[in-house]
Every structure is written in structure tokens, then in C-alpha cells.
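Model the whole thing, not chain by chain.
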Amino acid sequence: MVSLAATFGRGAMTNHWVDFKNSDLFLVIGANPAENHPCGWKWAFHARDHRGARIIHVDPRFTRTSATADKWVAIRAGTDVAFFGGMIRHILENQLYHDEYVKLHTNASFVVSEGFSFQDGLFSGYDEAAREYDTSTWEYERMAAPAPGEGEDAAPSEGFAVRDLSLQHPRSVFQLLKQHYARYTPEVVEEVTGIPADEFVAIADEFGSTGVPEKVGNIVYAVGLTHHTQGSQMIRAAAIVQLLLGNMGRPGGGMNAERGHANIQGNTDNAQSWEILPGYLQIPRPGMETLDQYETPASLTQMDAGSINFFGSNYRKFMISLLKAWYGESAQAANEFHYSYIPKPDKNWSWMTFYAEALAGRLHGLFNSGMSSVNIGPDSNRVVQALSRLKWLVVMDPFPTASSEFWHGEGVDPASVDTEVFFLPTTHWIEKAGAFVNSGRWTQWKHAALPAEGDVKDDAYILSQLLLRLQALYQKEGGAFPDPILDLHWPYSNPNNPPLEEVSREINGRDLTTGAQLATFNDAKDDGTTAIGNWIYTGSWTEEGNMMDRRGTDDPTGLGFFHNWAWSWPANRRVLYNRASADADGRPWDATRPGIVWNGQTWKGDVPDFTPDSPPSEGKGAFIMTGEGVARIFAPGSLMMDGPIPEHYEPVESPVENVLSPTRRVPTTILYEGVAASFAEDDSEFPYVATTYRVTEHEHFVTQYVPYLVEAMPDFFIELPRELANEKGISDLDQVRVSSKRGHVQGVALVTKRMRPLRLGNKVVYQVGIPVHWHPTGGHGKGNTAQMVNLLTPYVGDGTTVTPEFKAFLVNVERA
Amino acid sequence: MTTTDLGLTIRRQSATPASGTNIRRDHSTPALEISKLVDIDLCIGCKACEVACKEWNDLQVEETHLFSGYQSHPDLTPHTWDLMRFNEVELAGGALAWLIRKDSCLHCEEPGCLLACPAPGAVIQYENGIVDFNQDACIGCQYCVSGCPFDIPRFDTVTKKVYKCTLCIDRVSTGLEPACVKACPTGAIRFGTKEDMLAYGNEKVEKLKARGFTEAMLYDPVGVGGLHMMYVVPRGEILEQYGLPVDPTVTAPTSFPSLIGALRKVGATASWAGLLAAAVYFLKTGKRYPPPEEEAVAAAYEKAPHG
Amino acid sequence: MAEVVTAEELAREHEPRLIIRHTFWVRVVHWWTTLTFLYLLLSGFALGYPRMAWLLDLMGGGQSVRFVHPWAGVGFTLGLIFMVAVWLPSMTFRSVDRHWFRNLGEYVRTGHTDTDTDKFNAGQKAYYWFSVVNGLVLLITGIPLWVPDLLPREWNLAARFSHHVFFLMAAGFLVVHVYLSTARFPGTFRSMTSGTVSRAWAAFHHPRWFRRVDAGREHEGAD
């Protein structure tokens, strides 16, 4: 999500599920939508049946998606940057890119500052000791202020980026891109990814063929790209392909991140990650003592005359409205609306950091809510050790989890665990109303399907009790800095268990003067007269009622926008950046698939992701959330911590050296205390590449409690290629033991033709697949063979986002 | 919609001559025929239909274990009427195909089970084409199992009855689609009139041919009079690999129902003819008494070999 | 307990010159096979002919019939085995049987030939052997119908067809057997009730056997 924000301005699937019906070609990579997103994936089939679309699947395994795709190629897990890098090269070399689009809607024409360089796999500014980049050279060359007397009438341009619309400037993003990816030849791609060069070229040609206005290609991905040490760069690389081909902002196109579970998108939108506040406002950093100090660096400065810079110019309004929602009456201009209450973390506080801190004895208590540390986190043995060092652990869940039961799990001596574990049974989402935000940002209200069973409480009740009882304690006993807790605004009809309808209204926001629900975030104020829980959701519950509960099926354009079905953030837009679906004159690239069209007075079609009445002649950029006004092929500054242009590195555990540079691993991954020794340095002991995944019969860990689903997919298994099984004397259904440097699991061997050996140069590499769903506390599916795959995974995360590496690591396989 | 429109009157029942009950519809107009259609091209093998079938029909959970690939049960059972069958096939040229087929009752127009069943009313065919089992009348002989060219009915050793998909007759009769259709996330399982399903299927086959599946076919074999659950099969050239018989026959003169039907006619005719002939012979020739004792004994001794 | 007065003794009390043709155990075996066969025949018709399915209800319902029919088949086969054990010597074909077959036409027309018939004539022997062989075939083809899991579907269908064919043959010959032993030849049926026949009957139908019995060379009722 960070990488999409760095590229386009927002971290979300750019199009939506129904829009898949408008695509001509799908490149599915790092995803298994037929298996994991079957309801949405039907729209790809719809496109194939109704407009002759084709589906290409690139994946380490032949999955249910491959079975229904038109083409499948096997790729080595964790090498997707090389794949996309090769595609970028192929597109540039063969002039397959959409020239007009690239000039109009991307920063290809922007000139990068002279200090920027790239050598031996490292960008300029690397500090090896800190494993960090000083990103100050990753900037555009800026215009100086016009000389006095010269161009008095000209618009102010000081600080704007220098552009060369001919794309010929040697330091233009376009030329840098060409230069950077010149190394990614089909032969190199083959040696890195295992995809034969001719097959790779065929795919690159086919997908490259969508670089014309009348065709639209769609890249569909999921955690198969995200869960890598270079996951965000894989996504960036794919996004660059889509920008070069002019597939962004257009119906049928896009970078379509399939989100897991029912509500992960809603989770992200509402600040599930440590580094953001609701609505993707940045968490302040130390030194940002005042709102002014916060706003200036955090928000985005205008860098081009054409930039609307919507986010940058409204940042303060959204932040103050958020503070008003949180702190109510006590938040006043005089006290900066309690901005000072917002934590300013001094380091990366990703959830992997929690366990490192707990292990070091610096973190004492942890809540698990909608989360199970032991089996969701990587290197479960390490996480169990971390939990054992806590003073207390609270698990809020409908069912016991591997975390609530960790203290008497396999290999754990309860006597050695001092952690006090509280299990608070909660209602399941089936038992309560609320909203789900799907991958395509459709915020859909749902109703309780069943009454709650047994002595369980809503999460809202538990969290309210926590707050109310803490407030009471602080009032009674006092304590250090009680203000953020005592001043927290809790304006619900039932403070003990706030109705989620009221919470949703609060998230939408209201005008504090009139008391009316806000209809749009354009009405947000920075004077404390509006309170908004999450500005991107403004419009979801207006004076007209709960827009998320709408079920209108009218679709006047026939393009599947369905504006009256539920509600889509932002502003009920269905395709993000839809201004880019039209050319400089506001005419759609493809008249049969217009996103929005300028009709002389206004933009029509989808809800415009643009100023609705800004004529094309004003020349405003299509990407209103960026300071550039265009999408970023080159991600300047510290948007990405591990490089402004994606570069291939090997996974932290890899059977081969990096063919492309001497820098083997992502240079900026955080190496937590003591983890370096837990990585296999080469393939001598652990020769096989393992990857993890989900199967359609199960939903993460919870469906191990559903007997019919356990019946449908009963046993923990290990998928092995036939050739490897033969070599190791393993037969189908044998018990096998899979071990990594961190742990081992045992399961049933599923010997299959669907896993294929890969040839990398002179080396043959086997990949094995291990599904995630099993765990020892798993209800009906438990038992000796119900083992957690995360006993094997490495404790390392993405170079920018610190999302754990679940998808590529080394193991050994033996008959048990 | 009236009940007649749903084709819910009985067309025929097993082992029951003249078992049709329809008086509602004008017999000159064809009955409304319904059909499911499984578009294998759209099927992702998610087993939602399998689970929905078990849930709707309250079928008990069975303990399963991985036995081969992703398939949940080795075979249909009395408690599993819908099973996703998986088959990994290497095609000519080295490409891989993962053939996935929803296996459940195909509701033949000429149902081998019904024709084989000796228990009156144990197998029922409705006007709309649904073939259902009435376990009350089932005698547990399992002739239907042998009679079915698709190996669908399953015998339960506890109740000693046979079970299979009912095409959710309980749902269809209230105007709902079958549970598997409702649960299918991709629209691979469709439901409607046979006419509409044929139209969809034929159109889809043309699309598949255009996509390079030159042997794509609509599986609706004439040998069983057509199906009320048809398949769109992308790779018609390897039908058996999907687990579908190439040429199932129930109606052919050499098929079992035809032969046994002919034999019954011969048998019935011969039985009555034999009894009649015996009676006529008796009337003609009457009783044959032995002669008086002395005469008979003398004759017996006359026959004794001499010397 | 007093000595049981047997059926043969009672019959001879009434008509002293009767000859004993079938002893008590032979008659038991015969009626055992008769009853099991009749059950099999009727239930076979009920299962094989939809228009006779009403018989199922008379026989305790379809489920009972499905359960009993195979066991009745086993019972019938046991009877056959006893019959083989008891009658094998008497039922062996001899040279004299050729004469009977040559005069089959006369037998059909007049009910008699001048063959010097022993205890059983060639037709009876033929029926006997037909029953044994046919019974075995019905047993063998009946097993897959009883336990359908044993064989593939096609074999089960073939078995069911064959079972039906042999069933019809058995039914046809039964009509002949019953007709001849009741309606056609008076004095025959009693041989399977009281076990006795008249001297005239014996001398007329089975002269060779009669002479042996009459001369006391063979114990009455021996087989």
C-alpha cells in the first residue's frame, strides 16, 4: 500500500472488482485470485467471455488460478522485480509504451538532481552501518526563482521541478529508467526468475501490446508481492509497467491489489499500521512539536504548475478535524487541538518490532485483537519466546488462538512462562453489524446474521471498558501524563458499548456548528468547526443516511461503476485517478471505455478524481494526491526507504547469488537483534525454496473451527514437485519433515506435477509450497499434523514497510 | 408462477406402470424443463457447492484425510452428494491442465437409475426433469447404482437406502435455485430452463473454440436422452480425464434397460403362453391313468430282460 | 414317548398294497427346495416385473423381499446339494434312457412309452440336472446382485440379465414339472405327500424299479 501511495498518491487498489469486466488482458502475479478472491475474480472471467480478454498467471505454483488462466509460467519466489524490470526494459527498447500518456500523466519528464546515482546495487546516500539511505539526492532538480524583472506575469515557479517533455534529458526520469533497466535482459530474467527467455519475451510482448489507447491491461496482485523483503519495490515495478503502458486511471486497467480477509482495506484506511493516522495522515516524528512543524514536511509540496496538490493543500484541515473528533470540546485552537497528544515514535514501530522489544525485555504487555501473534507473525518460535517475556498478554478473539494457548503449546514449558494471559471471548463479525471495505474500496454495510452465542462481548465493549476504567483509575489515583486518555472524547449513547452506527457517523464527520453530517471532505475546516474520524470516509454517512447500506443496481454507463451500490472511498469514486483515462483535451483514450469525459462544462462519467469543473485547458495534472500532479515512476525523497527505482535483490534466504549486482540482499531491511544468525546464508543445508499460501477452503486460521470446511480440506500438507520427491524417495502421502534454520514442521507430502523445477543458469532449483491454515489449537482441524508454517519463516521484513517475508525462504525436506 | 410452471407433477416413477400424474398442463405443449449447467471453464474448484450441498441438505460431516491432491473425498458417499474431482493432466506439448469437475447427479432425461429400480416409487422423475429418490420406497437393492451410467447413487449401510443429489427439489419447488448454484462464486454453476441453458452452453462452446479449445463441447449425451445438469467441457478430446463417459447409453437397443425390457416382454409372454399351453394340453389329453394293477404288473415283468 | 406313526404307515393302513417311493427325508428335502423355490419365483417376479410389484406387499414389503430373497437362494441351493447327495445314483443316465428320448414324441402325445424305466425316467433325470445346473447359475449370478460392490457396474448388469434369463427357464420347467406330477399323472403327487404310490402306478411308470422292489431286491423307498 505504501508503494502505491508513493507512486500514485493513495494506497489502495486503483480500480475495483466489477471493473475487471472492462479489461483486455490480465497479468496475475503474486496472487491466486481464483483461490482467494473467487467472488471478485468472476469479473475477469466475464471479461474473457464478453470481450475476449486473456489471463496470464505468473506464480511459483500452478494453482486454481493457473488452472483457469490462459497461460501459466513458473517463477522463482521473490524475483518479481527482475520480472518487471525485464518487462520495463522490453517495453522501452521496443517502444511499446504509450508515449502521450507517459508525457502527460507521469513524472518521466521530470529531471532528477545531479547528485543521484546508482552503482553496484546501491543508490546514492547509503550508510552501511545504519543500513539506511540518506535520501536527499533522490530529488528533482528544482527551478530557481525567476530573475527580477523577468517574466513578471509568469506563475510562481520557484521550487518546482525541472521538466523535459522531450524525455531526452540524460537525467530525466525516462532516461534514468532506460539506463537502470538496460541490465534486465531476457537472459538475465531467465537466470534470475527461471522463466525461459522466449516465454518471458512472449509475455512481455503480449502485455506490452496494451500500451495503445484502444487496449487496457490489468495487473492483479496480492500478498505474493507484498510479503517480501522487497515487496513494496515489486509493486512499484509493476506500477511503472502500468504507467508506461498508460493503463492507470482507466476502466479495465490499474494496479489491483487484492486485499485479504473481508476488511483488510478498512483496517489500513483506519490506521492499522504504526506509521499512519486514519486517512493516511502521517504519524508525526520526533521534532514535530507543533502543527506547523508537522504539516510542512509531512504534507506534500506543490512541485509543478499543473499540480492540484489536493492532499498537500488540505492536510491541515484533515488533521485538525481528526483531532476534533478525538478530543472534542477540549481540542481548541489555543492548545493546537491537542496535537501534542499524538505520539511521535522515535523509530520504526512495525509490529515485528513489538516482539523484538518484548524479547529484549522492553515491552511488557500486548493486546491481540483480530490478530494472533504466534501464527500470524514470522518465526513463531521467536514470537513465542517474545510472548514468554511479557508480563501480560490479552487475546480478544471469538476462538482460542495459538497465541492465547502459546504458554502450553508444543515445546513450551508452562512453568517457564511468567506471562499472564487473558482470553476475552468476543463476538464474531457474523454476529454484529458494521462495514466491510473490500479490495476495491467499496464500503459495504452488513447486518448481523446471527445472535451472539455464549458469554461473549463486542470488541467495542471491551475497548470502551478499557478506556472508561483507565479514566476512572487516572481520576482516582492520578499518574504520569493522563491528559490524552482523560480528554478522549466518548460521545456515544451507550459509552459502555458504543453502537457501531454511531462510530460510523463519527468517522464520516460532522459540522460542529450546525450538527449536520458532512457530505464531502471539501467541507473540512481547519478552524475546529468540523470533526472527522477519517476524512477519506466522509460521504459514507451523510444527512441522507447510511450510504454504505445502499443496494442500487443501476449502471447507466454500463461500465460497472454502480454508484448507488454501497459507497466507495474517496467521494464514491469507483476508479481512482480517472482523469488519466482521458488525454490532454479531456477525450477518453478509448471512447468505448471512458472513465470521465470533459463535456465542455464538467467532467462526466465516474465521480471525477479531479476538480469537477477544471477544463482540460487549465492543464491540471491527473494525480491530485501528489505534489507533482502526475504519477511517480521515480519516487523522490523518502517515499521509499530502499530506492526511488525498484532494483532486484535476492530474498534474505536464496539459493543463488544476485546476478544483477554484488548487493545480495535488500540493503535497508531492519535486522532485529540476533536474527542475522537465523538466516541460511546459502543453499548448502537448506537447498529448497519454500513459499507459503492459502487455499480457498479455509479463511486464515479461523475456519479450522468450521467442521464442513475441515472436511473439505482436512490435513496440513506440503506440496512437492514430482522430481524432488523422486530424488528424495518421497511418495505421495508420505509424512515429510520440512525444516528451516528456525524450526521444522511435519505434514503429509502432496507430490504434484503442479510444482515444477526451475532452471537458473546451470542450476536446478526446486520450490515447495506450504499452506498456512493449520495450527495446534485449530478446533476440528487440530491434531499432531496441524502445524504452523510460520515456524519456518524468517524474521525479516520489507525494506520500506517491514511487512514480513512469508513468501520466499529456504528449507530442507526429508521423509519423516 | 404456478406449480405447473415449475414442472412439479410426476412424469414417471420407478417400477410403476402408467405413473405419470400430470393433468394440469395441456399435453400438447411441452413441459417446462429445467437444467443446471456447469461451465467447467469458469469453475475454480473452490468446493463452495460441495459445502453448500451438505449444509442445505443437512448432510453429516465426514472425517476426511488428504488422499490425493486437493480432492476432499475419494468418492461420493451417502453423505456427500456433490464432490469436486481434481485431475492433473499433462497435455501433449508438456503444458499442464488441472481438470476440475463438480460431480453430482446429472438428472438424465432417461434415468438409468429409474429404469433399473424395482421398487415402485423409489425413483421419481418430475415433469421438469428432476430425478429424485424417495427413500421411503427404496428397498436397498442398489440396482440404481448399477443402472446409473455416471456412478452417482450411494448406498448407506446403516439405513440400507440409496442417496443422491435431489437437484434441491425442495428449493426449486419454491422458486429458488439449487444450493450449489446459489453458492457458486463465479457463476460456473448455472440454473434455468433447459432451453436457456442449451443456448448459454452452445454460445459458450463457440467462445471456447475461438479461444483455441477446438474440441470444446456441451456435454448433453443423447444416449441418456440428454441431461438436466449439463457440462460445458473445454477439452472435449479428453472427456474421460474429467471422469465423464464418452458415450453413456441407456436408450440404445443394446443397453441394459432396453435388453431387460425386451426380456421382460419375452418372459411375460412365455409365462402366460406356457400356462395356457399346459391348460389346453390338459383339456386335450386329460389325465393318464395307469392300467389295472394286474395288467400293469404283467407288462412290467414282460419288459424284464430274459435270461 | 410313543413311537411316531409315519405317513407311509397310515397310508398303508388304508391301502395295504401301496409301495413307498420317497422316504420322509427325501420328501423334506423336496419340499424344502419347493418352498424356497416358490418364494424365489414369486419374489423374482415381484422384483423383475413392475406389474407384479404388488407381490412385494404380500411378501412383507420390498425391504423384506430384498433381504430374504438372497437368503432363500442360499436355502434353495442347500436343498439342491442334498438332492444331489440323495439322488445322484438314481439320476445317472443309463443306456435305457436313450430309448425314452427316442420315444419322447410318443410320451408327449400319450403320456407313456414302453421304455423299461427305472426309478426315474430320462425326462425326470433331465429336469433334475437342469435344476441343479440352473440353480447353480442363479446362485452365481445372484451374488453380484446381492453384494453389488464386488464387481464393476457392467458385470452387475450382465449378472442381472443372466439371472433373469435363467429364472425364466426355471419357471418354465417348473410348470412342466408341476403339471406332469399333478394334473397329468394321477397317483404321482401322493409320492411327495405320504411318500407312497400304487403298485399299478409303479409298474406302469417305472417297471424296472417296480420289479426290483416287488422282488424285494430293493428296500422300498431306497434311492
